[in-house]
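FW: tagging you since you asked about this chain on Friday. Here's the raw sequence from the shared folder, copied in full. Didn't touch anything.
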Amino acid sequence: MEYSPLRSPPSIPLVSVIIVNWNGHDHLVMCLPALFAQDFHDFEVIVVDNGSTDDSVAWITAHFPRVRIIQNRTNQGFAPANNQGIRAARGALIALLNNDTVVAPHWLAVLVQAMADDTRIGMVAAQMVLAAQPDIIDSAGIAIDRAGIAWGVNGGQPAVPGIDQLAPVFGPSGGAALYRRTMLDEIGLLDEDFFAYLEDVDLAWRAQWAGWQAVYAPGAIVQHHHSATSQRIPHFKSRLLGRNKLWLLAKNYPLPHLLWYLPCILLYELFSLGQAWREGRLTSALAGRWAGLQGLPKMLAKRRTVVKRISSSAMLKKLHSVEHPVAILRRYGHVLPTRKIARG
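HL: got it, structure written out here
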């Protein structure tokens, strides 16, 4: 593929790039200059600030007056803040971008061209690489297995610069994704009850149920400081992940297959709690699961609103087979360098 550095023709829709920020000045000084150096020019940028106490907003105003800023007095969460940006956006295509990223010049052009290839494509995943090791993939989209475990595709594998062939994927990471607005209008936005974490998996799952397709565009390269924000609040992240996983499955797992795989899901939940105990975050992990159980009635009600155009059997085929716990741990080895991963 070749991408013109000139302004795209009128047939290419405007893209709205939405960045959620919380005390992220140190990241924005790298993120925004790279974003405004794109070869693709037909885009607007909306920063939704979640009550930052640093000088993020003042710095953006001074250096990037083109950016539209939505200011929240408090931290509304990743999902609600992104939805604020989407509702305010003018674009027919919506790009979500973490503030702790640095995009390559072709990033947006590649995503837009991938979306233009087929009107059934509602989501495009970028090739996210580790900022500290840009030759290593952080995520090439997201996947989920039949034990209900979601992860970044190809995490820890060598990056593939210069390859532009699209590949099917379950969905994109919300840290660097392109969505078709018509798809969002049909299936709904990010689930704001999730606050943060797994909301992108939930969105992708609902899109898959509705028959939309997702592709991975490896030419859209993004350097990512993995979990740069959440590292400041590890127990908060642990609690939300424990809660949101239960909600994710309650809303989206196909029936009757959920009943068949429930023993496996529970077994891997026990394994996850064992990991949490070894890492000193068992209390937050248990608190999250308790909150998840309390919220199940609400999620089951939301399940009835999910647009479904494919069968439960077809959905099950989109979920990966369950792997050995050691293989599952290895999925995260590239972002958990301090954890000792067992060798099989």
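FW: DSSP finds twelve helices and twelve strands in the chain.
HL: agreed, and Residues 257-278 form the longest helix (22 residues).
FW: great, closing this out.
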